[in-house]
């Protein structure tokens, strides 16, 4: 089965794009699609443990954890993590530090790529 790769670029809070990306990923996972999520730029913060969610927002780290439990593979850009001072041990369980080559392979092997 070919995968669907979802690339998320935006910060987790203040804009709804990351939330909508995770909602779509969950719907596709429920439909038994193989989903890959690559977090880039400010989106890597979605994977940070211990988030205190702003009033009125969903906890995106919790949503990401639920997706991982459904079998979705999640990678966070290592360069993006480093530039934000985040370390691998600060990420929720199941998130893998990824490289651009990982994303390139996913794109190459995906039937569809969606960018948020």
Task: Describe the SSE topology.
Layout: E1 3-8, H1 17-30, E2 34-39, H2 60-69, E3 73-77, H3 78-83, E4 95-98, H4 100-108, E5 110-115
Q: What helical percentage do the residues reach? A: 25-40%
Task: Output mean pLDDT.
Answer: 95
Provide the CATH architecture: 3-Layer(aba) Sandwich
Query: Main sheet: which strands, in order across?
Result: 4-3-2-1-5
Structure overview:
This protein has one domain (3-115): DsrEFH-like (Hypothetical Protein Ychn, Chain: A, 3-Layer(aba) Sandwich), CATH 3.40.1260. The protein is 34% helix and 23% strand. It has four helices and five strands; from the N terminus they run βαβαβαβαβ. A five-stranded parallel beta sheet has the order 4-3-2-1-5, with helices on both faces. Helix 3 (78-83) links the parallel strand 3 (73-77) and strand 4. The radius of gyration is 13 Å and the shape is globular. The two termini are 23 Å apart.
Write a concise synopsis of the structure shown:
Helix 1 runs parallel beside helix 2 (60-69). Helix content is 34%, strand content 23%. The longest helix has 14 residues, at 17-30.
Structural descriptors:
34% helix, 23% strand, alpha/beta, Hypothetical Protein Ychn, Chain: A, 116 residues, 5 strands, 4 helices, five-stranded parallel β-sheet
């Amino acid at each position: 089965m070919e995968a669907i790769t979802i690339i998320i670029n935006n910060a987790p809070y203040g804009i709804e794009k990351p939330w909508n990306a995770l909602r779509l990923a969950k719907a596709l996972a429920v439909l038994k699609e193989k989903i890959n999520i690559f977090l880039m730029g400010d989106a890597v913060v979605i994977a940070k443990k211990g988030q205190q969610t702003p009033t009125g927002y969903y906890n995106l780290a919790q949503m990401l954890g639920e997706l991982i439990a459904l079998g979705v593979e999640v990678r966070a850009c290592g360069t993006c993590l480093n530039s934000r001072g985040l370390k691998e041990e600060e990420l929720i369980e199941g998130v893998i530090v990824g490289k651009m080559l990982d994303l390139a392979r996913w794109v190459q092997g995906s039937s569809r790529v969606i960018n948020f």
